[in-house]
Amino acid sequence: MVSLYVLFFESNCKAKLGIIAIVSLVVTYYIRVGFGRYFTTIDESYYISLIGNPVWYKTSIVSGFVVPFLLHSIRILLGIDPVSLVVYYSLAFAVLYVGIIYWAYTRVGISKKYSTISLAVLFVSSFYIWSFIQIRPQQLGILVGLSIVSLFMSIKPNKMFFIIMPVLFTLLIFTHIFSFFLFSILLMAYFVLVFIKSESSEEVFKKFLGISFAVLIAWLAFLSFPYSSRTIRTLVWLLNSMPQFDNFQLLLNYFSSLSTFAYIMLVFLIYHAGKFLHSRYLNDLVNLWESLRGILIKFSLQIIFLALIFLSVGFYIQFKLGASTYTKIYRGSVLTLVFFQLGNIFFGFMFVRGFLDKLKDNTLTEFDIMAIIWIFIGIAMLFISFFMPKGSAIWGFSNWMVRVAQYFVIFAAPTVTYALYKDIKAMGLSHLKLAISILISVLIVISMINTARPPQIYDYDIVWSDEMIDVAKEVRLSNTLMFRYNVSPYLKFAMENLLKAYGKPVEITQGSSIVLSSDAIYVYGSNYHPLSLGFFSKKRGPVIVILGTSNPKVKQYFTTLLNKEFPALIIGEIDNCEMYIKQGYPLIVMGGKLANKCTQLLEKNRAMLVYMDKDSVVTPYFTYSVPSPKKEWWNVNEGLFVIQAVKYHGAPILIIEGTNIDATVAGVWYFVNKVSQDIEKYKNTYYIVGKWIESDNKVLRFLKFDPNDNNGFSEGDTVEIIEIG
Length: 725
Prior knowledge:
Mean pLDDT: 85
Distance between the termini: 52 Å
Number of helices: 27
Low-confidence stretches: none
Helix content: 55-70%
Strand content: 5-15%
Structural class: alpha+beta
Number of strands: 17
Radius of gyration: 31 Å
C-alpha cells in the first residue's frame, strides 16, 4: 500500500516524504532488534566499542573522528547504555538520511515528485539499506559528501562558495577519510570532462579552483591534527603492503610532504590536460561521443545485456575476493546469494535502462554523469583490491567496490526512477500499477532481509543476544569470560566490543573460579578487583610504602614527598610481599616487577588492569611504547608510567611503576602533586597512563647515575597523560 501510494497517488510530497521516513524507521527497528538478537556488523561493533574508552582519539585507529565523538557526546547527554544508544542513533539516522537525500535531489534540480519516488526506489537496493543502518564513519560521510556535491552543482562560485567548500571538505575528512578521497576523485574526474567540453568558462575555472583549494585545506588540516597520526600510519601501511611498493617503502616521515606535493601536481595536470584536449581534440572527441551515443541508442537491448554481464562479472570477482566470508554467510548456497541480491540486480538493470533512455531523450544531467563516474571508481577499487594485504580473520581489505556501491545507488536512484516511470506511462494500464507496486515491495523486503541476515537463513553471528547484553552489564572489570561451546572469531569479536562499550574490557579466556554462568557463557572471578584511585586520599590515614630498593637517598626523597599527603611507613627491599598483604593495610608499591617483589607477585597472578614491559605499557585498550636507551641504561629522556589501584585479597594497593626509574619517580610525583590535590576527580578512575619527557636538562640528585647523566626526571619536566580508565 505504501509503494502504491508513493509511486502513483497524486498528493502532497511532504506527506509522501513523511511516509518514507516512517518506512525507514520501521525497516531500521526491524533489522536492529528483530529475530531475537541485536544486529551489528564488524565495523559498527568496533566503533561502538569506543564508547567505553574515554581516550579513544589517542588510542584507537579510526577512519573518522566525528562519529565516535557524537556517540560519546550523546551517551553523556542522555546517560543511556550502549545498546539503547545504538538503536536510538540508528532510528535518528534513518530519518536524517531521508531528509538530506531529498534535499540534495531537489537542490540539484530534480522535481519533488521524482525526488520522493527516488527515495522509495532506493530501498530496493540492500547497498542503500547497509549505508544508513550501520553506525560507522561512512554512514555520515556519504551525507556530507552528497551535500558537497549538491551545493557544488547549485551555487555560483562566489565568496560564499570559497568559504563553504573548505569548511565542508574539512568536515568530510574528519568525518570519514575514505569518503573524502572518493568525493575528491569524483569531482576531479568530473572536472576533466568539463574542461574538455568548455575549457574557457570562467565559472568552471573558479569552481575548479575553489574545490582544489578546499581539498588542499582539508588535507593539511588533517595532517596537522595531532590525533590523526594513527590513521596516517594505517594509510602508509596499506601502501607499503602492496606488492608494487616492495622496493619502495614509503616512510611515514615523508608521507605528508609527498602526498601534498602529489596532490598539487595532480591538480596542475588535470587542468592542463583538460585545456590540451579541448584545444587539440575537441571536435574529435565530440564526434566520438556522438558516434558512441548513436551506437548505444541503436543497440540498446544488446547494450543492456552486455552491461548486465559486465556487472555480473564484476560482482563475481568481488565475491571470489571475499569468498571465505560470503560462502559462510550464505551457507555455501549460490542460489540463496543470487535470490537475496534480486533487489540489487533489478536496480542495476533499471539504471542501465534509465541511462540509455536519458541518452536517447537527450536529458542527461550532471548527476547522471556522476553516477557513471562512480561506476568507474568502483572498477578501480575492485582492481586495487587485488593488491591489498589479506588482513586478519576479522578485518579484510578487499571489499572496496562494495563500499563504492553504497555511494553509487544514491546517485543512480533518479535514473532508475526515470526508467520506471517511462515504462509505467508506456503501459498505461491501471491494474499494472498494483503489479509494479507489489514488485517494488517484494524487492524491498528481500533487500531488507538480506541486510538483517536472520539466523534462520544466514550463518551470521556478528550479533548481540539478550544473554550477551545481560552478561556485559553484570561482569566486573576483573572478570574473565569463556564460552561454553566453540564460537567463531566473529562472535568473540562482537562480545569483546560489547564489553568494551560498557567500559568493561574483559578478556575472553578461562579464569580461576566461576562467579556467573548463563546458557552460553561462564564468567570467572579473580582474587582482585580494580580500586578507585580516589581511595588513596590524605583522609585514609597511614600507608605502607614498598619501594623495592634500600637506597637511603631514594627513601629520603619519597618520605619527604609522600608525607605531604600520607603518614607513610617506608620499606625498602622485601622478599615476602604476602606478609604485608595479609595485614590488610593500604599499600603503595613503587617500581616494576624487576625491582619490586610486590609488583612481581601482582603481575604473576594477573591482578592488574594495566601491565608494563621493559619499554611498553599494555592497557585494556591499547599498547604504548617508547624507544629503548641507545647506549647506557640511564641515558633516557622519556618514559611511560602507570598509576593504578587494586584490592588484592582484601588489601588496597596503589601501584606506581615506569619503564625506567625516572618514569617511576615522575609517576609518584604526578600522583602526589596532581591526583591527590583533586582526588574527587579520580573517584571513578582505576588507572592513569602517563608519559614523562625530559624538558629542562635537569635531573634529581638521586637519579643522577653518572657524571654525564643530564637526562632524568626533575620537577620542571613535561608529564603528559595519554590514557585514563
